[in-house]
Design a protein that fits this description.
314 residues, nine-stranded antiparallel beta sheet, 9 strands, alpha+beta
Length: 314
Amino acid sequence: MYHKVRPAIDSAIVPEQGTTKGGQPLSYNRAPAPDLAPWIGRLYVTKVAAPADYTLQCGLFNDTAFLRIQLAGLWEAETAGGRIEAGNAAMFCGPQSHRMPIRVTGSFISVGLAFRPGACTALRGPRVGEHLDRLASTDLVGIPSDRILAMLEPDAEPEEWLHALEAMMRKRIEHMGAPLPDPISARFEDISYRDPAMSIADAAAACGVERRKLERVVNRDFGLAPKQVLRRARALDMASFLRGVADKDEADEMALRYYDESHLIHEFTELFGISPRQFAQTPQPILTLSLESRQARRLEALHRLEPGQTRPWE
């Protein structure tokens, strides 16, 4: 299914962290330090060079809340609360229920981290359900944007930026008494990576709770109902395959999560706004960067890839 569609490339941009075998852009992304792993799923740095007057139209579709710091580039996003424009800023990004249109003008640098489901609840942060499909200055969630920007020296190396974010999070976790996220959310996150076609009844049994409790916890920590979380997860996996940033050995397994091709087209179009074939044939550099980071996190979480190991698409 779509095996012969080569994902399109935006030739106007130059990703400074290199490209995949198929020419898709890469970020520098890695797992957090082990002591932060219960709360943080991924850290990343993206640096892309582009003509000053070039506007890249793309999108974002993330399954967890993010802290995103824009160090260069003029960004616009069509959110559930309306259009947001930002230059250099630190933003809290809620999880998304569908693709969010994004535009960025000129070269851009983005640094950030992905929160694991339940981390915001454990750390008494924002309720992710209230930030679904929304972006907000970190000022509104208790971390002044100016303070975060001041931590990141413009000319620093990517690892220096990520170490600074880890130090900030470590301090907050220690201040909060190191509360762990709900283990039910961690188990359900694993299910979303391992088998997003699983029924909710089976997922509840695998998590060792009644269905109603699973629904309460998932709604609180993921911002969506369990069925929507799993539906989104299989669409993101398929999108990763279509963009060439998934393990090709899983292609058939990903396709079999859908009843047939019409089911895939209908569900994918509803979440991404275009058909799978159109998605592959249209450059999606920003979205591809986030999909690649998620797939690396997913394969490491499932112990199919070791941290630092060469990824199948590299």
